[in-house]
Specification:
2 strands; about 5% strand; two-stranded parallel ribbon; 10 helices; mainly alpha; single chain
Length: about 260
Amino acid sequence: MALSDHFREFRARLLRSLLVLVVAFALALVFFSQLYDLVYGPYEGARAKLGEDTTMATTRGLGGGLLLYLKLCGFAAVVATAPYWLYQVWAFVLPGLYARERKMTRVFVAVAGPLFLAGVALGYLTFPMAIEVLIGFNPDGVTNLTDFNDYLQFFTRTLLVFGLAFNIPVFVVLLNIAGVIKGKSLAAYRPWIIVGTFVFAAVATPSADPFTMTFMAVPMVLLFFLSEVIARLNDRRRARRAPNAGLSPDELSQI
C-alpha cells in the first residue's frame, strides 16, 4: 500500500472516531443528570456520614457550570466510545503485524479489557472511603469547600489509576511470552515485588490513605502471583519444545 493510501485510511478512521465521539457527547448531554448522580454519588455518600463538614461548589466564575457540563460529558463520551476508537487504532496497525503478533494483541485485548473494568469498579467502590479519610482531616468548625471540576479530575484520575494498575501483571505475562522475563526470576524477586507493589499503590492512589492503598495493592499482588504461575507454565512448555534452548555454550546438549 502506498504512503498516500495510509494517510487516507488514517484520515477516514480519525473522522469516523470523531463523529462517534461527537454523537456520544450529544447523548451525554441528554443524560447529564444520570451521569452527574453517578459521579456525585460517592461524594454524597461520604458527606452523609460526615454531616455538613463539606460542600460542593463551582469556583471557576460565571462559566463554572458550563465547564462542569463540558468536562463531565466529554469524559463520559471518551470512555463510552473507547472500544470503538481503540478498535480503529488497532485496525490501522493490524496490517503491519505478523500472525503471532496479531494473536498476542487479541489475547491482550481479551484479558486487559475486563481487568481494566474490574479495576475501575473497585476504584469506584473504594472512592467514598478515600473521600471520608481526606475530609476527616478538617479541624472542627472548618468547612471543606470542594470545586466540582477539581473533584471530577480527582475522580477520573483515581479510576484510571485503578484500571491501569490491574493491567500491570498482563504486561508481565507478555514480557514472559516475549522471552524477556523468566518465571524463576519473578519467584526470586517475589518479596521485592510485593514491597514495590505496596509502594506503587501508596504513590499512585491520589487520596494516599492506607485503605485505598490496600484495596489496590492486595488484588495487584494476587494478580502478580497468577502472572508468575502463568510464566512458569509457559517456561515449562517452551522447555519441552526446545529442551536445549537454555543451555550455555559450555554445556552439552542431550544430542
